[in-house]
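Table 4 source record.
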Amino acid sequence: MATPMEEDRLESAAAPPADVAGGGAEDGEKPDAPPMESDSDSSDSDDEGDAGDELRIQALERALLEQPLDYESHVQLIQCLRKSGNIEKLRAAREEMNKYFPLTPKMWQDWAKDEISLSSGRGSFDDIEKLYERGVQEYLNIKLWRDYLDYVEEHDQSVSQCSQSGLSKMRDLYERAITAGGLHVTEGSKLWEAYREYEMAILTINDGNDEEKAKQVQRVRALFHRQLSVPLADIESTLAAYKSWEAEEGNTRDPDSQVDDVPPNVLSAYKKASEMYNARKQYEDELSVVAESEANKLQVFLKYIKFEKSFGDPARVQVLYERAVSELPVSSDLWMGYTSYLDRTLKVPAILKSVYHRATRNCTWVSDLWVHYLLSLERIRASEDELRHVFELAIQCSFPSMNEYLNIYLTRVDSLRRRMPTGLDFELIRQTFVDAAEFLSPQLGIEELLLLHAYWAKLECNIGKDIAAARGVWENALKKRFIIMFVQVHTIFSLLALS
């Protein structure tokens, strides 16, 4: 199964060949003209091509009915449908893929671009806005955020008309973008600059009174001050832009000076941010060098994250983890480290739920992530409905061994047991054991089955207060053990007889 990181390779492999009408020429030479085709020949060729594309689409649709978790087939189906122009089927295919997998930022950009080309009216705007919202929640990607910001700024009437509600909406969206990616050392400045440009545009068209203009000037100034306190790759050019802007506002004596008329607190923050950037530059340089090697990139990210953790700033650590999982989305080491860090340090329910949800969508086969997900939900007092939903998703995954399914079931039982004082019915525990025994018995080892039934009998006795039920559990366990042993012995004798 292809991974999200392989999408670009898959797209290249599946993409239709470039138009060769002008290909093959070097240094501006015109190639020989191809033989002329009659209209009927051209039409026949087009019909054959369309028929071939349709057959390919049908084959991919059949393949996905049988194997809905085949990432590569999802990608190829979307490419074929995009080429065919069947927008309804294309939408459905994208939604179907996103049921099982997170889409890459490039796939979200393509989706939004396609919808924008067909959009008309307020309803279309709302739908496209929701698409961007879904996209930025899956991975941190500065380009996707910029597309989102540009789209809302250009197409939301309340924003383009600079109404109070529009101004508030756009500022809130910019603040969200800054929170998500404003600390990105190499690309975060793109978000800050877009935010400043927006506020500067408001200042330019502001025809209100002097007090309103003064407030808008202060908004721009505050954005400069905030950005100058963040260690970003082009922090020096930001200072120069700030000096130039203050000069235009008539608030500086020497725009060529690096320090004149910069408030002491801003200058101090700038110097600290510059030092922080210089300390991180070596890691950024290493990441740019190992861009083609995922194994080396992982090691650099892990070193970088360890370095960032030593400063104790959770926001910076979180953004770095987001950068890492965006580039290496199927690295279980990164997701395990990220979720464990949030469990220990941040402990914000909404963030924990979001990151665990994305971790288990990217690495569905890692049972430890599911176990930690369930434990984290319990710690933040998630509802029983939410816990049950995540548990049911977990047992539908493909894990390498049956023992991992056993661990998921036991984690579920432990959670129910701990929450019995909150009013849960013991029948939930009993039914979980019944389901576990039915699911696991055919393939689980004897020792593990006995462990499961022993725990079941203990809880029937201690919590369910039902001695007869506990005895019944043990009797069933012994019967299963005898049957399994009989089958094993019979198999051994059969093999001996054949030899």
